[in-house]
Amino acid sequence: MTELDSGVSEWLLEEQNPCVRYLTLTELDGMSPRSKAALEARSKISGWAPVRRILDKQKRNGCWDDGETWYLPKYKSTVWQLLILSQTGIDPAFPSVRRMCEYAFRFQAPSGTFYSGMAPNPEDDWARLAGCLNGNVIAALCRLGWERDPRIKKAIDHLLSFQEHDQGWSCRSCGYHARDKHSCFMGTICALDSLIEYSRHVRRKDVDRAIASACEFLLMHRPYKADHHGWKIIRSDFTELGAPWLVGYNILRGLRALTRAGVTSDERMKDAVTLLLAKRNSRGRWAREVPWPSATYSTFGRVGAEDKWVTLNVLLVLSKSSFKGQVAGTFTLSCKLQASLLLVLL
């Protein structure tokens, strides 16, 4: 048993970043969101400088765009703020958040799909059959408390309708993906995230089946290797860690989805978990390896620096992972916020 720097828990719980503090308390430490410490941390999120800079750019009707497309300009318009803010732990009842969510539903077609607004007719929009945009938007709205809204049910039904034969999702309505023979990792992870968020509150057998099959899609790729080409790494950026999630796929996002879906001991996860452990530095922390988009209103980390968002998400993965093979990781945080962070390597 090797004891890591006990300062990791204190570092994550520092008040300078109330988002990570709140998420550490409620997701890693298991504290009730209604506890005094959690409520206090959450109350400060809307005033935290990176979040405040986003909210200060919001228009009265809840958007950050001209009302024609909520997707462009990329990282500046409304859909991107929805994705970012939904992962901060911000209170869904905050008026700016509610206006943003109501605005999002303006870009939902009768079929249930969320579209980009880049085409005159929603049914001609590239996002109509895009697992990435639809999944990301559904996941964000579910995080913000809209999972029981009938419009979300309609969106989930639509998302399920275009799951691929290999159990992933693609972007069939986007021209250069129309003839793809293999699902897209980004489309799949976004769709899977949305189904997991939805299933936390609404149980449906068809959703459970889709989650299980999408997890199998990731597992058959271990979750970043080519299953038909000698287990080569599919793309180098799949191994680069980053959080929160916007676009793109990496092993941290994949493993978070798998463990949240209850997949904790499948041997096919071992390679990715081992890689996560290898990236831990001598202080028991993880660095950001994926650049945060420079076009956003606020930065949520820089490449090469120890990163609280990444470290928290890695610990959430490792706290649920267990293997009978070469690697086993167990991470715990005290509910009293005083215990050291422990790693057990068997």
What CATH architecture do you see? Alpha/alpha barrel
**CATH topology, anyone?**
Glycosyltransferase
**Integer tally of domains:** 1
Series of H and E elements: EHHHHHHHHHHHHHE
Unreliable runs: 324-346
Which shape, going by the Cα principal axes?
globular
Compute the number of helices: 13
Strand order of the largest sheet: 1-2
Q: First CA to last CA: what distance?
A: 8 Å
SS class: mainly alpha
Give the number of DSSP strands. Answer: 2
Strand content: under 5%
Summarize the amount of helix as a percent range.
Answer: 25-40%
User: Mean pLDDT across all residues, rounded?
Assistant: 90
Short key terms for the protein model shown above:
346 residues, mainly alpha, Glycosyltransferase, single chain, two-stranded antiparallel sheet, 13 helices, 1% strand, disordered C terminus, 2 strands
Q: Would you kindly provide a written description of the structure presented here, covering whatever features stand out?
A:
The chain is mainly alpha-helical. The chain has 13 helices and two strands, in the order βαααααααααααααβ. The protein has one domain: Glycosyltransferase. Helix 2 packs antiparallel against helix 3, helix 9 packs antiparallel against helix 10 and helix 11 packs across helix 13. The C terminus is likely disordered.
